[in-house]
Amino acid sequence: MTTDMAASCSLVCCEEERDSDNAIIVRFSNGSVKNADKLDFTLYKNADESNPRKKSRRIMAAESDRLSYVGNNFGAGSLKCNNLCKYYVGVLNRDTMQMEVHRAQLFNMQPVIPGEATVAEKPQDATQTYRDKVDSLIEAFGTNKQKRALGSRRLNQVGSDTLHKAVAKAANTVIDQKGLEALQQEVADTEAQGELALHLPPCNAAADKPEDVYQFDDLLSPAEFEALEQAGAKLAALSSEELQKMRDDGGCLCVLKHLENMPSADEARDKTTRCAFYLSMLLKLARQKSISRKFGQEEGCPRMIQNKLLRTFSVETFNNGRVQNMVSSSMRAKLAAHCLALLLHMSHMTADLTLLHRDLGVTEARMIEVAKSMGLTLSKQPRGKANEAESVDTNRQASVVLPLVKYDQFMERRKRKKMH
């Protein structure tokens, strides 16, 4: 080997190349071509130069006497490697011993058999629902997790016709065995019990004493009662002028009634003031639509009580990108029941429903419905010849009398429907 043959070459990078300057590299899917010189290659490009997605599309065609080959850089038959990396080809000029480096593009050439029909695209079914279209997309492009969920849902899916027939057959069997009226009564009792479970405090209907029916510790735990010491002391220190100002400003009538008539004994007085503060927080919460974490801070509400109110008497909803605590209608019914149970312990197992429904902002009929669901005895003294200051005695009262009263929920429900 001479030194001339061993002479080194230098690389020259061709800058600012156009798409038409790219080198073309082809490979044949059915093997190697022995006589490549006998193939006529033609490169086609998309005529829509203004479309950025179509202007780079190319089709390479190779024709011979026996067979034709076609390859493209788009669609299902294209090579994905063109999008993942860049290829370069070096062209050596033997005269100057310089190698020009050009960008390259790969084409996978597939034989085209004359007379072979191409698979036509299936027309889209116009009767497909949105759910079916989404399932089709998941089958084609979904992740493994989505495909597993789709398969599980289809395995658990029961035909609607079969399900309806089974339900109808079971319903007819139950109706034949028990009768329609007995079933209606059971449904009414079940609905009534379901509503009770939503808004009533824990009830011990078999208690021997009225105080044990709705136990005080179920309304306020010992730790929560202890946390109300400072807040109750502030209410105990209010003067008669400050109480009158609260009344003029529209304060809660139930709270003011107990603050104006507090017992003289220290222990009973302390319990009344603590319960009065907690009752004021419940009544304030019942008039809110949404509450924040700062609820009750102005009144000096302990953090433990704030957490209890948010956790027990509100529901979390997602609105405008953040979680909010809302006071729903069922939560207002729950607040009404807990306020009523707390008032029973503050007033020797008797509560004024008229004052309570005004403070809660609910109708008297709704308040009576809550009291009846708790099994309380309702009474209303007839209005007699009394002065204006004694007119409060004509308010409707609710009290705990053993055994608890069981009202006929089903009959009352039917009567309300007839009135409407």
Q: What brief labels describe this structure?
A:
alpha+beta, 420 residues, single chain, 16 helices
Overview of this protein structure:
This protein is of the alpha+beta class and 420 residues long. The protein has helices spanning 81-84, 130-141, 144-156, 160-178, 180-199, 216-219, 222-227, 229-236, 240-248, 253-260, 266-286, 303-312, 329-346, 353-360, 364-373, 409-419; strands at residues 10-13, 23-28, 40-45, 58-63, 68-72, 87-93, 98-112, 290-291, 315-319, 322-326, 350-352, 377-380, 396-399. A hairpin with a 4-residue loop joins strand 4 (58-63) and strand 5.
Please render the helix and strand layout as text.
Blueprint: E1 10-13, E2 23-28, E3 40-45, E4 58-63, E5 68-72, H1 81-84, E6 87-93, E7 98-112, H2 130-141, H3 144-156, H4 160-178, H5 180-199, H6 216-219, H7 222-227, H8 229-236, H9 240-248, H10 253-260, H11 266-286, E8 290-291, H12 303-312, E9 315-319, E10 322-326, H13 329-346, E11 350-352, H14 353-360, H15 364-373, E12 377-380, E13 396-399, H16 409-419
Parallel strand pairs: 1-7, 2-7
Antiparallel strand pairs: 3-4, 4-5, 5-7, 6-7, 8-10, 9-10, 11-13, 12-13
